[in-house]
Amino acid sequence: MMTQKRSTIWHWFLDGKIAPANLKAAMLEVYPHPNAKNWQLLIANILLYLGVLLFGAGVIFFMAFNWDALSHLNKFAIVETIFALFIGGFYLTNRAQKKQYLQQKSQHDQYHLQAQHNQQTYGWSLANAMLLGASIMLGALLALVGQTYQTGADPWQLFAIWAVLILPFAYIAGFDLLWLLVVVLLNISLGLYLQSFASVFSFLLEDIQQIALFGLVNLVIHLLFTLTKRWQWRGQLHFHCPMVEATSLLASLSAFTWLIVWIIFDFSYDSSEQVIYYALLYLAILTSIFAWYRYRSPSLYPLTLVLTSISTAIVSLLSRELFDSHDTIGGFFLIAMVVIGLTSGSLYWLKQLQKEFAQTATLNSEEAAHE
Predict the structure, then answer these.
(1) Which terminus of the chain has fewer CB atoms gathered within 10 Å of its CB, N or C?
(2) What is the rounded CA–CA span in Å between residue 255 and residue 77?
(3) Mind listing the pLDDT tens digit for each residue in 100-111?
(4) DSSP 3-state assignment of 166?
(5) Full-model pTM
(6) DSSP letter string over 232-292?
(7) Which residues of 243-271 are buried (b: 16+ CB within 10 A; e: fewer)?
(8) What confidence tens digit (pLDDT) does each residue in 108-165 have?
(9) 18: alpha, beta or left? (left if phi > 0; alpha if psi -120 to 50)
Protein backbone atom coordinates (compact mmCIF):
# COMPACT_ATOMS: atom_id res chain seq x y z
CA MET A 1 0.00 0.00 0.00
CA MET A 2 2.77 2.46 0.90
CA THR A 3 4.75 1.58 -2.22
CA GLN A 4 1.62 1.95 -4.33
CA LYS A 5 1.08 5.50 -3.08
CA ARG A 6 4.66 6.52 -3.87
CA SER A 7 4.40 4.96 -7.31
CA THR A 8 1.12 6.76 -8.01
CA ILE A 9 2.51 10.19 -7.14
CA TRP A 10 5.69 9.59 -9.11
CA HIS A 11 3.79 8.52 -12.24
CA TRP A 12 1.50 11.55 -11.89
CA PHE A 13 4.62 13.69 -11.76
CA LEU A 14 6.05 12.03 -14.87
CA ASP A 15 2.75 12.50 -16.72
CA GLY A 16 2.71 16.21 -15.88
CA LYS A 17 -0.31 16.03 -13.57
CA ILE A 18 1.74 17.40 -10.66
CA ALA A 19 3.98 20.43 -11.04
CA PRO A 20 7.65 19.84 -10.12
CA ALA A 21 7.42 22.51 -7.41
CA ASN A 22 4.54 20.60 -5.77
CA LEU A 23 6.10 17.12 -5.93
CA LYS A 24 7.51 17.13 -2.41
CA ALA A 25 4.32 18.58 -0.93
CA ALA A 26 2.24 15.95 -2.74
CA MET A 27 4.43 13.16 -1.40
CA LEU A 28 4.07 14.43 2.16
CA GLU A 29 0.34 15.03 1.75
CA VAL A 30 -0.64 11.68 0.27
CA TYR A 31 2.18 9.68 1.83
CA PRO A 32 2.93 11.18 5.25
CA HIS A 33 5.56 9.79 7.55
CA PRO A 34 4.30 6.62 9.25
CA ASN A 35 2.61 7.14 12.58
CA ALA A 36 0.79 4.88 14.99
CA LYS A 37 -2.42 5.04 12.96
CA ASN A 38 -0.65 4.08 9.74
CA TRP A 39 1.01 1.09 11.40
CA GLN A 40 -2.30 -0.03 12.88
CA LEU A 41 -3.95 0.22 9.46
CA LEU A 42 -1.14 -1.77 7.84
CA ILE A 43 -1.33 -4.53 10.47
CA ALA A 44 -5.13 -4.60 10.19
CA ASN A 45 -4.95 -5.02 6.40
CA ILE A 46 -2.34 -7.77 6.67
CA LEU A 47 -4.45 -9.66 9.20
CA LEU A 48 -7.61 -9.11 7.16
CA TYR A 49 -6.24 -10.53 3.91
CA LEU A 50 -4.29 -13.25 5.66
CA GLY A 51 -7.50 -14.25 7.41
CA VAL A 52 -9.39 -14.38 4.10
CA LEU A 53 -6.69 -16.52 2.48
CA LEU A 54 -6.51 -18.88 5.45
CA PHE A 55 -10.30 -19.13 5.60
CA GLY A 56 -10.47 -20.05 1.93
CA ALA A 57 -7.73 -22.63 2.35
CA GLY A 58 -9.50 -23.99 5.43
CA VAL A 59 -12.72 -24.52 3.50
CA ILE A 60 -10.88 -26.35 0.73
CA PHE A 61 -9.04 -28.62 3.19
CA PHE A 62 -12.27 -29.24 5.11
CA MET A 63 -13.99 -30.43 1.94
CA ALA A 64 -11.07 -32.65 1.01
CA PHE A 65 -10.76 -34.20 4.49
CA ASN A 66 -14.52 -34.89 4.78
CA TRP A 67 -15.06 -35.85 1.16
CA ASP A 68 -16.56 -39.26 1.87
CA ALA A 69 -18.58 -38.09 4.87
CA LEU A 70 -20.40 -35.30 3.01
CA SER A 71 -23.05 -35.78 0.39
CA HIS A 72 -22.93 -33.96 -2.95
CA LEU A 73 -25.68 -31.62 -1.83
CA ASN A 74 -23.87 -30.68 1.36
CA LYS A 75 -20.61 -30.05 -0.50
CA PHE A 76 -22.19 -27.69 -2.99
CA ALA A 77 -24.31 -26.04 -0.30
CA ILE A 78 -21.25 -25.21 1.84
CA VAL A 79 -19.16 -23.75 -0.99
CA GLU A 80 -22.02 -21.86 -2.64
CA THR A 81 -23.20 -20.43 0.69
CA ILE A 82 -19.74 -19.10 1.51
CA PHE A 83 -19.42 -17.71 -2.02
CA ALA A 84 -22.78 -15.93 -1.65
CA LEU A 85 -21.74 -14.54 1.74
CA PHE A 86 -18.56 -13.08 0.25
CA ILE A 87 -20.52 -11.48 -2.60
CA GLY A 88 -23.07 -10.10 -0.15
CA GLY A 89 -20.29 -8.80 2.08
CA PHE A 90 -18.74 -6.99 -0.88
CA TYR A 91 -22.06 -5.39 -1.80
CA LEU A 92 -22.78 -4.20 1.74
CA THR A 93 -19.28 -2.88 2.48
CA ASN A 94 -18.99 -1.17 -0.90
CA ARG A 95 -22.39 0.43 -0.44
CA ALA A 96 -21.43 1.64 3.04
CA GLN A 97 -18.21 3.19 1.71
CA LYS A 98 -20.05 5.05 -1.05
CA LYS A 99 -22.69 6.27 1.39
CA GLN A 100 -20.01 7.57 3.74
CA TYR A 101 -18.27 9.31 0.86
CA LEU A 102 -21.46 11.05 -0.27
CA GLN A 103 -22.25 12.20 3.25
CA GLN A 104 -18.83 13.78 3.73
CA LYS A 105 -18.57 15.18 0.22
CA SER A 106 -20.17 18.50 1.03
CA GLN A 107 -18.34 18.94 4.34
CA HIS A 108 -14.69 18.37 3.44
CA ASP A 109 -12.15 19.10 0.75
CA GLN A 110 -13.02 17.40 -2.54
CA TYR A 111 -9.42 16.37 -3.36
CA HIS A 112 -8.79 14.58 -0.06
CA LEU A 113 -12.14 12.80 -0.17
CA GLN A 114 -11.63 11.66 -3.77
CA ALA A 115 -8.17 10.31 -2.96
CA GLN A 116 -9.52 8.48 0.09
CA HIS A 117 -12.47 7.12 -1.90
CA ASN A 118 -10.18 5.83 -4.69
CA GLN A 119 -7.94 4.15 -2.11
CA GLN A 120 -10.92 2.45 -0.46
CA THR A 121 -12.41 1.42 -3.81
CA TYR A 122 -9.31 0.18 -5.63
CA GLY A 123 -6.85 -0.53 -2.82
CA TRP A 124 -6.62 -2.60 0.33
CA SER A 125 -10.19 -2.40 1.57
CA LEU A 126 -12.70 -4.68 3.24
CA ALA A 127 -14.81 -4.80 0.06
CA ASN A 128 -11.87 -6.03 -2.01
CA ALA A 129 -11.07 -8.61 0.65
CA MET A 130 -14.59 -9.96 0.15
CA LEU A 131 -13.97 -10.19 -3.61
CA LEU A 132 -10.71 -12.04 -2.99
CA GLY A 133 -12.55 -14.56 -0.83
CA ALA A 134 -15.25 -14.94 -3.49
CA SER A 135 -12.57 -15.57 -6.12
CA ILE A 136 -11.06 -18.36 -4.02
CA MET A 137 -14.48 -19.92 -3.44
CA LEU A 138 -15.22 -19.73 -7.16
CA GLY A 139 -12.12 -21.81 -7.85
CA ALA A 140 -13.13 -24.28 -5.16
CA LEU A 141 -16.58 -24.54 -6.73
CA LEU A 142 -15.11 -25.27 -10.18
CA ALA A 143 -12.85 -27.96 -8.69
CA LEU A 144 -15.83 -29.41 -6.83
CA VAL A 145 -17.88 -29.65 -10.03
CA GLY A 146 -15.06 -31.34 -11.91
CA GLN A 147 -14.30 -33.79 -9.11
CA THR A 148 -17.92 -34.65 -8.38
CA TYR A 149 -19.15 -35.21 -11.92
CA GLN A 150 -15.81 -36.35 -13.40
CA THR A 151 -16.14 -34.06 -16.39
CA GLY A 152 -12.90 -35.40 -17.87
CA ALA A 153 -11.52 -31.95 -18.47
CA ASP A 154 -7.78 -31.43 -18.46
CA PRO A 155 -6.31 -29.67 -15.40
CA TRP A 156 -5.30 -26.62 -17.45
CA GLN A 157 -8.96 -25.92 -18.25
CA LEU A 158 -9.81 -25.55 -14.55
CA PHE A 159 -7.23 -22.80 -14.04
CA ALA A 160 -8.02 -21.12 -17.36
CA ILE A 161 -11.77 -20.98 -16.67
CA TRP A 162 -11.08 -19.85 -13.11
CA ALA A 163 -8.92 -16.98 -14.40
CA VAL A 164 -11.56 -15.92 -16.94
CA LEU A 165 -14.42 -16.00 -14.42
CA ILE A 166 -12.64 -13.83 -11.84
CA LEU A 167 -11.61 -11.22 -14.43
CA PRO A 168 -14.72 -9.11 -13.61
CA PHE A 169 -13.83 -9.25 -9.91
CA ALA A 170 -10.28 -8.12 -10.61
CA TYR A 171 -11.46 -5.28 -12.84
CA ILE A 172 -14.06 -4.08 -10.34
CA ALA A 173 -11.60 -4.12 -7.46
CA GLY A 174 -8.58 -2.83 -9.39
CA PHE A 175 -6.60 -4.57 -6.70
CA ASP A 176 -3.09 -6.03 -6.78
CA LEU A 177 -3.83 -9.39 -5.19
CA LEU A 178 -6.80 -10.16 -7.44
CA TRP A 179 -4.94 -9.25 -10.62
CA LEU A 180 -1.93 -11.18 -9.37
CA LEU A 181 -4.17 -14.21 -8.82
CA VAL A 182 -5.36 -13.91 -12.44
CA VAL A 183 -1.78 -13.73 -13.71
CA VAL A 184 -0.71 -16.74 -11.64
CA LEU A 185 -3.69 -18.79 -12.87
CA LEU A 186 -2.92 -17.90 -16.49
CA ASN A 187 0.69 -18.99 -16.09
CA ILE A 188 -0.34 -22.26 -14.42
CA SER A 189 -2.90 -23.01 -17.13
CA LEU A 190 -0.33 -22.29 -19.85
CA GLY A 191 2.22 -24.59 -18.20
CA LEU A 192 -0.30 -27.39 -17.76
CA TYR A 193 -1.52 -26.96 -21.33
CA LEU A 194 1.98 -27.30 -22.75
CA GLN A 195 2.65 -30.28 -20.49
CA SER A 196 -0.59 -32.02 -21.49
CA PHE A 197 -0.02 -31.62 -25.23
CA ALA A 198 3.76 -31.99 -25.26
CA SER A 199 3.55 -35.19 -27.29
CA VAL A 200 1.18 -33.62 -29.82
CA PHE A 201 3.02 -30.33 -30.30
CA SER A 202 6.55 -31.53 -29.60
CA PHE A 203 7.55 -30.78 -33.18
CA LEU A 204 6.35 -27.19 -32.74
CA LEU A 205 7.29 -26.33 -29.17
CA GLU A 206 10.48 -27.69 -27.69
CA ASP A 207 11.43 -27.04 -24.06
CA ILE A 208 13.46 -23.98 -24.92
CA GLN A 209 10.60 -22.62 -27.02
CA GLN A 210 8.23 -23.06 -24.09
CA ILE A 211 10.57 -21.00 -21.90
CA ALA A 212 10.59 -18.27 -24.54
CA LEU A 213 6.79 -18.43 -24.70
CA PHE A 214 6.50 -17.97 -20.93
CA GLY A 215 8.81 -14.96 -21.13
CA LEU A 216 6.81 -13.37 -23.93
CA VAL A 217 3.44 -13.98 -22.23
CA ASN A 218 4.56 -12.35 -18.99
CA LEU A 219 6.17 -9.49 -20.90
CA VAL A 220 2.87 -8.86 -22.68
CA ILE A 221 1.08 -8.84 -19.30
CA HIS A 222 3.62 -6.33 -17.98
CA LEU A 223 3.22 -4.09 -21.02
CA LEU A 224 -0.58 -4.34 -20.79
CA PHE A 225 -0.67 -3.05 -17.21
CA THR A 226 2.06 -0.47 -17.81
CA LEU A 227 0.49 1.08 -20.89
CA THR A 228 -3.12 0.78 -19.74
CA LYS A 229 -2.25 2.65 -16.55
CA ARG A 230 -0.64 5.48 -18.51
CA TRP A 231 -3.54 6.01 -20.91
CA GLN A 232 -6.11 8.64 -20.02
CA TRP A 233 -9.40 6.76 -19.86
CA ARG A 234 -12.15 5.89 -17.39
CA GLY A 235 -10.77 2.49 -16.43
CA GLN A 236 -7.26 3.73 -15.66
CA LEU A 237 -7.49 3.15 -11.91
CA HIS A 238 -8.66 -0.42 -12.43
CA PHE A 239 -5.23 -1.37 -13.83
CA HIS A 240 -3.00 0.51 -11.39
CA CYS A 241 -1.28 -2.55 -9.91
CA PRO A 242 2.46 -2.04 -9.26
CA MET A 243 2.74 -5.49 -7.70
CA VAL A 244 1.50 -7.15 -10.91
CA GLU A 245 3.81 -5.02 -13.05
CA ALA A 246 6.84 -5.89 -10.94
CA THR A 247 5.99 -9.61 -10.67
CA SER A 248 5.24 -10.09 -14.37
CA LEU A 249 8.45 -8.30 -15.36
CA LEU A 250 10.42 -10.45 -12.91
CA ALA A 251 8.85 -13.62 -14.34
CA SER A 252 9.52 -12.50 -17.91
CA LEU A 253 13.18 -11.60 -17.39
CA SER A 254 13.72 -14.74 -15.33
CA ALA A 255 12.43 -16.81 -18.25
CA PHE A 256 14.62 -15.01 -20.77
CA THR A 257 17.64 -15.34 -18.47
CA TRP A 258 16.96 -19.06 -18.18
CA LEU A 259 16.68 -19.10 -21.98
CA ILE A 260 20.09 -17.53 -22.57
CA VAL A 261 21.75 -19.72 -19.92
CA TRP A 262 20.22 -22.80 -21.58
CA ILE A 263 21.61 -21.66 -24.92
CA ILE A 264 25.07 -21.04 -23.49
CA PHE A 265 25.45 -24.45 -21.84
CA ASP A 266 23.37 -26.88 -23.93
CA PHE A 267 23.47 -25.66 -27.50
CA SER A 268 26.24 -26.19 -29.99
CA TYR A 269 27.20 -22.95 -31.66
CA ASP A 270 28.32 -24.66 -34.85
CA SER A 271 25.35 -26.94 -35.50
CA SER A 272 22.32 -24.95 -34.39
CA GLU A 273 21.04 -21.86 -36.17
CA GLN A 274 18.47 -21.30 -33.43
CA VAL A 275 21.19 -19.94 -31.16
CA ILE A 276 21.38 -16.78 -33.23
CA TYR A 277 17.62 -16.19 -33.19
CA TYR A 278 17.26 -16.78 -29.45
CA ALA A 279 20.29 -14.61 -28.69
CA LEU A 280 18.89 -11.80 -30.85
CA LEU A 281 15.50 -12.14 -29.15
CA TYR A 282 17.15 -11.92 -25.73
CA LEU A 283 19.24 -8.88 -26.68
CA ALA A 284 16.32 -7.10 -28.36
CA ILE A 285 14.00 -7.52 -25.38
CA LEU A 286 16.58 -6.48 -22.79
CA THR A 287 17.67 -3.51 -24.90
CA SER A 288 14.07 -2.37 -25.28
CA ILE A 289 13.37 -2.68 -21.55
CA PHE A 290 16.60 -0.88 -20.69
CA ALA A 291 15.89 1.99 -23.10
CA TRP A 292 12.31 2.38 -21.93
CA TYR A 293 13.03 2.47 -18.21
CA ARG A 294 16.22 4.46 -18.59
CA TYR A 295 14.99 7.32 -20.79
CA ARG A 296 11.22 7.10 -21.31
CA SER A 297 9.95 6.06 -17.87
CA PRO A 298 12.90 6.13 -15.43
CA SER A 299 12.74 3.35 -12.84
CA LEU A 300 15.47 1.53 -10.91
CA TYR A 301 13.72 -1.81 -10.42
CA PRO A 302 13.54 -2.84 -14.12
CA LEU A 303 17.09 -1.62 -14.70
CA THR A 304 18.25 -3.74 -11.78
CA LEU A 305 16.60 -6.81 -13.31
CA VAL A 306 18.22 -6.10 -16.69
CA LEU A 307 21.68 -5.75 -15.15
CA THR A 308 21.19 -8.94 -13.14
CA SER A 309 20.17 -10.85 -16.27
CA ILE A 310 23.14 -9.56 -18.28
CA SER A 311 25.52 -10.36 -15.43
CA THR A 312 24.14 -13.90 -15.24
CA ALA A 313 24.63 -14.35 -18.99
CA ILE A 314 28.22 -13.06 -18.81
CA VAL A 315 29.10 -15.34 -15.89
CA SER A 316 27.49 -18.33 -17.64
CA LEU A 317 29.38 -17.69 -20.86
CA LEU A 318 32.64 -17.30 -18.98
CA SER A 319 31.94 -20.45 -16.95
CA ARG A 320 31.42 -22.53 -20.06
CA GLU A 321 34.69 -21.41 -21.57
CA LEU A 322 36.67 -21.83 -18.35
CA PHE A 323 35.24 -25.26 -17.51
CA ASP A 324 36.61 -26.55 -20.81
CA SER A 325 40.11 -25.60 -19.69
CA HIS A 326 42.33 -27.69 -17.43
CA ASP A 327 42.92 -25.04 -14.74
CA THR A 328 39.73 -25.51 -12.70
CA ILE A 329 40.92 -23.67 -9.58
CA GLY A 330 42.05 -20.68 -11.59
CA GLY A 331 38.75 -20.69 -13.45
CA PHE A 332 36.72 -20.56 -10.25
CA PHE A 333 38.91 -17.75 -8.94
CA LEU A 334 38.44 -15.74 -12.12
CA ILE A 335 34.67 -16.31 -12.07
CA ALA A 336 34.51 -15.10 -8.46
CA MET A 337 36.42 -11.93 -9.39
CA VAL A 338 34.09 -11.32 -12.35
CA VAL A 339 30.99 -11.75 -10.15
CA ILE A 340 32.37 -9.28 -7.61
CA GLY A 341 33.27 -6.82 -10.35
CA LEU A 342 29.88 -7.04 -12.08
CA THR A 343 27.99 -6.70 -8.80
CA SER A 344 30.04 -3.74 -7.63
CA GLY A 345 29.84 -2.00 -10.99
CA SER A 346 26.08 -2.49 -11.24
CA LEU A 347 25.47 -1.19 -7.71
CA TYR A 348 27.68 1.84 -8.33
CA TRP A 349 25.92 2.68 -11.59
CA LEU A 350 22.46 2.25 -10.04
CA LYS A 351 23.47 4.52 -7.16
CA GLN A 352 24.65 7.18 -9.62
CA LEU A 353 21.44 6.77 -11.57
CA GLN A 354 19.37 7.27 -8.45
CA LYS A 355 21.21 10.53 -7.76
CA GLU A 356 20.63 11.59 -11.36
CA PHE A 357 16.88 11.00 -11.06
CA ALA A 358 16.79 12.98 -7.81
CA GLN A 359 18.82 15.86 -9.29
CA THR A 360 16.56 16.00 -12.34
CA ALA A 361 13.49 16.28 -10.13
CA THR A 362 15.19 18.99 -8.04
CA LEU A 363 16.21 21.04 -11.09
CA ASN A 364 12.71 20.83 -12.50
CA SER A 365 11.32 22.01 -9.16
CA GLU A 366 13.68 25.00 -9.09
CA GLU A 367 12.84 25.96 -12.68
CA ALA A 368 9.14 25.78 -11.93
CA ALA A 369 9.60 27.90 -8.81
CA HIS A 370 11.44 30.64 -10.77
CA GLU A 371 8.71 30.72 -13.39
Answers:
(1) C
(2) 42
(3) 766 665 555 554
(4) coil
(5) 0.79
(6) -STTGGGG--HHHHHHHHHHHHHHHHHHHHHHHHHS-TTT-THHHHHHHHHHHHHHHHHHI
(7) bbbbbbbebbbbbbbbbbbbbbeeeeeee
(8) 555 444 444 454 456 678 888 999 999 999 999 998 888 887 766 678 888 999 999 9
(9) beta
